[in-house]
Every structure is written in C-alpha cells, then in structure tokens.
C-alpha cells in the first residue's frame, strides 16, 4: 500500500460516527416552494396535494387563514404559508393537505418541488431561543439544489 491510500485528502474525509450507508437513518420529506424558499415537511404527514380548490372565506379569523375547503365531505382549514411568513399572498397556489396528530390542515404553497430522503444527521436544528421561527431545522439538499428549511407545522397555527 502506498501512503496516498492510507491517508484521505481533507475533502475526502468520511465521518464514521455518522454510520455507513446501511446504518444511516433517513427521513422522507416533501419539499415545496413558498416565496422562493424551499420548505420541507415530513412526507408521512402529507395526505394529498390538490389543485384548483375553491376556498370558502371565513370571517373573524387571522388573515393567514384563507378559509376552508370541503375534501370529500371533510372540512379542512386552509392556511396561506406566504401570509404566515409575512409575505404577500398568491392566487395560483397548490393546497398540500397535512395530517398533524389526527387533525387535517391544508397549506397553500407556490409549487411542489420534490420528494427526497435526507439523512437525519444532515438536518441542523434552529436556535432554540427564537420561538418566532416557523422552521425547526435546515439542511443542504444532497443534489446541490439549495437549502431546505424544515417547516415546524406545530408553529403554523397561532397559540393562545
């Protein structure tokens, strides 16, 4: 063996504490776009993606609650992610229906980007002291297409 084979270059260092391919714990995310941000939700919580939905307006709710839809007899509140982020709303949006601990919630997004498996160790937590964030973590996407922010679905709805 020559010396080159014994020592990896700095850009080839493998972190063995992360495990090998057979021991890495992956999590599947649906990545969508809202105001040029790539946001991800755990794929297991995604029920359905809907287009061309008629949203019924509800009075006396926060502005980011756009209303409700009737999905096969079930009433689902619709939240506009752009408005929740303090950005202007868009009319040509998709509805991603999520199941959050047994409660269904639809979120309006600009577009769906991809479904991807991400190693759990790649997701970096957000600072705990900032409770105003709607994201719980972030990671660089393996395909080099940017950074995904993990949407903290529990923070979407206002709490008293």
Total count of helical runs of at least 4 residues: 2
Question: What structural class do helix, strand and pairing data support?
Answer: mainly beta
Which regions have little confidence, pLDDT < 50, spanning 5+ residues?
Answer: 1-20
Helix content: under 10%
Order of helices and strands: HEEEEEHEEEEEE
Distance between the termini: 66 Å
Report mean pLDDT, rounded to a whole number: 83
Adjacency order of strands in the biggest sheet? 8-1-2-11-10-9
Strand content: 35-45%
Count of individual beta strands: 11
Radius of gyration: 19 Å
Taking the sheet with the most strands, its summary is:
6 strands, mixed
Overall outline: globular
Reconstruct the topology from this structure:
Elements: H1 3-6, E1 26-34, E2 37-42, E3 46-50, E4 65-71, E5 74-80, H2 81-84, E6 94-100, E7 103-109, E8 111-119, E9 124-125, E10 135-140, E11 147-151
Parallel strand pairs: 2-11, 5-7
Antiparallel strand pairs: 1-2, 1-8, 3-6, 4-5, 6-7, 9-10, 10-11
How would you characterize the overall build of this protein?
- This protein is mainly beta and 160 residues long.
- It has helices at 3-6, 81-84; strands at 26-34, 37-42, 46-50, 65-71, 74-80, 94-100, 103-109, 111-119, 124-125, 135-140, 147-151.
- A 6-stranded mixed β-sheet has the order 8-1-2-11-10-9, with no helix packed on it.
- The longest helix is centred in the first third of the chain and has 4 residues, at 3-6.
- The protein is globular and about 50 Å long.
């Amino acid at each position: 063996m020559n010396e080159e084979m014994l020592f990896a270059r700095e850009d080839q260092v493998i972190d063995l504490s992360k495990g090998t391919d057979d021991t890495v714990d992956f999590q599947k995310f649906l990545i969508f776009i809202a105001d040029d941000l790539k946001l991800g939700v755990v794929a297991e919580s995604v029920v359905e993606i809907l287009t061309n939905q008629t949203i019924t307006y509800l009075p006396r709710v926060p502005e980011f609650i756009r209303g409700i839809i009737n999905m096969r007899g079930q009433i689902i509140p619709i939240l506009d992610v752009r408005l929740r982020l303090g950005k202007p709303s868009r009319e040509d949006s998709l509805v991603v229906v999520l199941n959050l601990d047994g409660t269904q919630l639809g979120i309006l997004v600009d577009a769906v980007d991809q479904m991807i498996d991400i190693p759990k160790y790649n997701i970096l937590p957000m600072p705990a002291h900032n409770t105003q964030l709607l994201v719980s973590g972030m990671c660089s996407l393996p395909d080099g297409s940017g950074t995904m922010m993990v949407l903290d679905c529990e923070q979407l709805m206002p709490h008293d």
